Amino acid sequence: MCAGVLILWGWQMKVFGGIASLFRRRQRKFEWPSVELPNGQSRFLPSDFDHGATVTLLAGRGQYPQLCAVRMIESGVRCNLIAAEDSCDEVWDLFPQRQRARFNPGQIGKLLKKLGEFGSTYAIMAGQIAPKRLFHGLKFDMTALRLLATLRQRNAESIFGALATEIERRGVRILDARSFMDADMATAGFMTKTTFSRKSLDEGVRIAKAIAALNVGQGIVVRSGTVLAVEGFDGTDKMLQRCGEFRTGRKCFIKTSKPHQDFRFDVPVVGFGTLDAMEKGGIGSMALESENTILLNRVELLAHADRRSIGIFGYVA
Question: Which domains does the chain have, with CATH numbers?
Answer without folding.
Answer: 38-174 (3.40.50.20), 185-315 (3.40.140.80)
